[in-house]
Amino acid sequence: MVLEIGCPCALLFGYAATSGGLVQVGVALQHPPTQLYVQPAAAFSVTGARADIAHAAAGSFGAVGAQVEVELATPALMGLASEPLLALSLGRGLTWSAGQPAAAPVLAAALRLAPEHALAVGAFAQGGALVVAPPAAPGAFGPPLRRHALEHADRAAAWAWVLYLPALPPDAPLSVEPERAATLHAAAAARTPADSELLDMRLWPALEHDDLPAFGAALRELHAANAALLPPLPRGRVSDDLLDVMAASGAAAWGQALAGHALFAVVRGAQAAVALRAALLARLPLGAGRVLITIADIAGAGDVARAERPLLP
User: Fold this and answer.
1) What is the CA radius of gyration of the chain?
2) Cys-Cys with 181: which of 30, 116, 150, 210 at CB 3.0–4.6 Å?
3) pLDDT at 310 over 60
């Protein structure tokens, strides 16, 4: 038997310092996803995208024999929680291979994921738009404090996320994303609680009432407050140009991922998303990256056992 595992990526809107404590706010997105295949084997081996991360995470689950192929991985350095989500996906596969499939909190505890990965754990567990509390100790993650499915039956009404994933030089340091995530967490934890009204009275009610303009205004304010806690991440002329296109497009909110290089914008409906993607592609030089359209993931990680899957030798 072979287990196919797929999971979303996670976009952090920002930390909110509230009267009830520090929380992360963000959303699970269907793309770019993580997908891998696991089958029991005499010894552990892994091939495919981000195999280095999967190999490092495997040690948290003991000497489990399994053959792993990482078919897809959320790109590194984009600020979309690539590393913790790949580690969680691997953990799901290895615990299945050992005959004891484990849920997200157990996997996170085994991996001793750092508190700044709370949103990734929530996205893996159940998807949706989330408010999560970073744990006091590594790996001790609880359930989300709030969750909204952000689901629309009508494509014309759906909130669509347009992402630009820039092409980076081969020697770009892979430490940028985890370092920025840790720096932001430490800086946010030191802030005076001042975001309760923004979260409780503006951003979250706008989500629940499908008020995209109000949500966008609140998201831009939360995102800007968090970005001010970080040193600027250098970006080139292309990214600056594309941010200008996003801002002029009528998007409700736009910006750069807090922990990485991805750009995002949120608009209503497939037609607006396609039009924005076309406008971005018109300004994008050949080979400078890719632009994609996605929607919120509302299920979290899923897995399917199959009778057979050809794996790389």
Assistant:
1) 19
2) 116
3) no
List, for residues 198-215, the tens digit of each pLDDT value: 999 999 999 999 999 999
Q: What are phi and psi of 97, to 5 degrees?
A: -60, -30
In the predicted model, is pLDDT for residue 138 greater than 90?
Answer: no
Task: Return the CATH number of the domain spanning residue range 2-306.
Answer: 3.30.230.120
pLDDT at 312: 46
| Percent of residues, the chain, with pLDDT higher than 70 | 98
Minimum mean pLDDT among 11-20, 50-59, 140-149, 260-269: which range? 50-59
Instruction: Indicate the DSSP class of residue 36.
Output: E
Cα–Cα nearest to 29, from 288, 241, 306, 273 = 273
Report the sign of the C-alpha dihedral through residues 181, 255, 124, 48, in that order: negative
Enumerate the domain spans of the chain: 2-306
Strand ranges across the sheet with 159-166: 253-256, 263-268, 159-166, 289-294
Helix count and strand count (H, E) for the chain: 10, 11
Alpha-carbon distance of 185 to 191, in angstroms, equals 10
Looking at the chain, which runs of residues are DSSP E strands? 2-18, 21-40, 45-48, 66-72, 129-132, 146-148, 159-166, 253-256, 263-268, 289-294, 302-306
